[in-house]
């Protein structure tokens, strides 16, 4: 998908490239792909966006890191160190499943990327796109409150409206889970339990996330595409050897 303006920022979603391999278009370094090919795709992405990109080492945690730009270099406010620059166009990876960057006063602040292949990619925008976040919210992270944590970190920086965009993920019609997992998840987040299109227990992560964010006063948009149903997107459920797409947010 091409860049689009959203809530004052820009957003971009990488997709599967035409080809026969399970990794065509992959931007993840942890899926068995040739690292040199992944680095080249990431470099090309940064060049197309006109910004370097901060990547995360995602582990299904609820950790959300705050970044600032100091002397042209992104810094972790929490650990007080500059991010690594492993290759042209890249910063990180940040050991977290969510990153917030305060780009006020910095016209060329780096973009933030979240990688997924069924989990929820969520980006946030506040202060007319000058304070943004990217969050990886799988089942564990969502139930653990990572989206509320990201919203809290942003609101500690700025007042005013807060927007969230939930990117393509596996939908509630397709995310089959054991009955006990569905029941336990419902106990933690009422409304998340559902049924697959073939009648078995399921979880509806996108709409549960949207409800929880709306309850926090966040304005929510959803890209309703299902990663399992859309051949242009990577899906771990469809192919465990697949690559990862990235939802990227570029500060204003």
**Sequence stretches where pLDDT stays below 50 over 5 or more residues:** none
Order of H and E elements = EEHEEEEEEEEEHHEHEEHEE
Class per helix and strand makeup: alpha+beta
Number of helices: 5
Proportion in helices: 10-25%
Q: Based on Cα principal axes, name the global outline.
A: globular
Task: Give structural notes.
The structure is a single chain. The protein is of the alpha+beta class and 252 residues long. The chain has a single domain (4-172, 226-250), classed as CNF1/YfiH-like putative cysteine hydrolases (4-Layer Sandwich). It is 21% helix and 30% strand. It has 5 helices and 16 strands. The protein has helices at residues 35-49, 139-144, 146-155, 179-188, 205-215, and strands spanning 4-6, 9-13, 53-56, 64-70, 73-76, 81-82, 90-94, 98-102, 111-116, 120-126, 131-137, 162-166, 193-195, 201-203, 219-222, 245-250. The mean pLDDT is 96.
How would you sum up this structure in a few lines?
This protein has 252 residues and is α+β, with helices and mostly antiparallel strands. The protein has 5 helices and 16 strands.
Please render the helix and strand layout as text.
Blueprint: E1 4-6, E2 9-13, H1 35-49, E3 53-56, E4 64-70, E5 73-76, E6 81-82, E7 90-94, E8 98-102, E9 111-116, E10 120-126, E11 131-137, H2 139-144, H3 146-155, E12 162-166, H4 179-188, E13 193-195, E14 201-203, H5 205-215, E15 219-222, E16 245-250
Parallel strand pairs: 3-7, 3-9, 4-8, 12-15
Antiparallel strand pairs: 1-2, 2-16, 4-5, 5-6, 8-11, 9-16, 10-11, 10-12, 13-14
